[in-house]
Amino acid sequence: MLNPIAGEIFCIDKPLRLTSFSAVKQIRARLRTHLGRKNIHVGHAGTLDPLATGVLIVCTGRMTKCIEQLQAGVKEYTAWIRLGQTTPSFDLETEVDATYPWQHITREQVEQVLHEQFIGAIEQVPPAFSACKVGGKPAYKLARKGHDVEIKAKKLVIDEIEVLECGLPTEPTLVLRIVCSKGTYIRALARDIGAALDSGAHLTGLRRTRVGDIRVEHCEPLDSLLARLDTEEYVAPGEAEAALLEAERQANKARAAAQKAERENKN
Residues near 208 by Cβ (< 8 Å), separated by ≥ 6? Predict the structure, then answer.
């Protein structure tokens, strides 16, 4: 039986073009319907852009307290990058705004640049088209209105970058496997790789394949989860809350007994 009040963790494979918030909203709506109440805590552990797919962890009830811990897990991505072109958003959300030569780039140069400049602790300026706050407002809202957005560089760690596919010298395309820390914008990484190669670049596809120990092959498609939520049995909210209160009472009782024993041992 599902117990969304005590807490569940759903690992989904987010589909293309759906926002992370929309995925949470759909799950919350199903749970509200089946539990017969509006006040249900549901949140996700790490945003995925609408144009990205892959691992999205959604927590409910008391398990939302684990979100920060889950977000801290190492991330792994497969990134598709097009060299020689840039876009304002660094991906396909916006149109190409500039083109650059790419014919001088070789696979050997790519490997060297990645190894020398993008492994280990680095600084990265997040995209203007991101949820980073500027003056208390999400940067993307300002960027979409045409405002200049200045975001400070952030420190992050790239553990691994592997070239999975390279279209050079005939096609200006790369497919990379990237293992990195929380807070890494792969779109910005594509921008910086293009610049380091004396060209430009933008992201044409992104798939998050791992968050911590959770791999995409172990995740459930969102449609499958929503269908399952319609057929599962649920622990009644009143019963779940009573069990949580009893568990807290027992924990408090155990803490009091431990403290009493400690005082007695000191005496």
Answer: 48, 52, 53, 54, 55, 56, 75, 76, 77, 216
The separation between CA 171 and the C-alpha centre of its own chain, rounded to angstroms, equals 30
What is d(CA 88, CA 94) in angstroms, rounded to the nearest whole number?
6
Q: How far apart are the first and last CA of the chain?
A: 48
Q: What is the pLDDT of residues 87-126, one digit of tens each?
A: 999 999 999 999 999 999 999 999 999 999 999 999 998 8
**Cα(145)–Cα(208) distance, integer angstroms:** 29
- Which residue ranges make up each domain of the chain? 9-71+215-241, 75-211
- Of 83, 42, 97, 243, whose CA–CA distance to 175 is shortest? 83
Q: Which residues are catalytic?
A: 49
Pairing, β 9-14 against β 220-221: parallel
Q: Cα separations (Å) of 70 from 29, 44, 49?
A: 23, 9, 18
CATH classification (class only), 9-71+215-241: alpha beta
- pLDDT digits 0-9 by tens, 175-205: 999 999 998 999 999 999 999 999 999 999 9
Burial of residue 31 (number of CB atoms within 10 Å: 0-12, 13-18, 19+): buried
Q: Is the pLDDT of residue 18 over 70?
A: yes
Quick: pLDDT tens for 122-172. Answer: 999 887 766 676 666 666 666 676 767 778 889 999 999 999 999 999 999
pTM of the model: 0.88
Write the CATH number of the domain with boundaries 75-211: 3.30.2350.10
